Amino acid sequence: MHSRPVPSCPETDVVVVGEALIDIIDTAAGAVEFPGGSGLNVAFGLGQLEVGTAFLTALGKDERSRSIQSHLAKAGVRLLPGAESLPKTSTATAVLDSNGSAEYEFDFHWDLPQISPTFLPKVLHTGSLATFLDPGATQVRALLELFSGRCQITYDPNIRPTLLPRHDEALQTFEETAALATVVKLSSEDALWLYPGWSLPAVGRRLLDLGAEAAIITDGGAGSLLWSKSAEVHVPARAVDVKDTVGAGDSYMAALIAGLLEEGDGEFDAAKLTRLGTVASLAAAITVGRHGANPPTRAELAESLELAHASRENPND
How far apart are CA 112 and CA 18, in angstroms? Predict the structure, then answer.
């Protein structure tokens, strides 16, 4: 594969590297298609939060690709050139259970050309299938190695067991990737699949031992746990009428990255971890309160944050 440069883009604070696909959701009225994929959802969520974002992905040259590109454009996300490199755009068929939780069946293709970046983002994010499935995963790891130590790197493996290799191989890949990251975020399901029989605090400590400066595990209605070398905090989940959980973790991740940009450099002390976890949890709560991967805008998240602060200051109102 040939190498292609990534154009300089000063207004880009975040580069997201990951899969983009079409989610096919079976409903009573028939199948409905939406742009999806963990990488795309995080990039779109960042755009909704008005964070300058560029997206490196792989698509087919077809109608589904055009749908994805139109979706990204609505949030102001810039698709890096050369994306239409696959025979066809990937799909994931979601089947919702009675609680609104989604299980997926994938028709997935992942391959990226080598790239020669000519600019340095403040944050490089990757995760999910893009970091596990070759040939593209090898290119993703090479990119992380190139940027490691030069910018913040965030990683969310977003485990999809049915598409991964044997557990031991997947765990090795995860740990090699996590070792390159500044911040690693897992769901409790991810944690228990990667480290069966381990407690969540033990998994958090393992992530820090691998080299992460901050480790985060989300646990649905139980809230989220955040660790650093100097602090451990629990952020409660916001009570919400759950419509479905599609995209909730990606909304959490997008808001977390936006929070990292606002916080800037510095130690991950308890106060910082609490602020990051609070804003990310609110973003996830907004998302699960409506159908589909529909992350909040910056204005919606700001309003929710103000209401949360007011509720804490006036608990009897």
Answer: 10
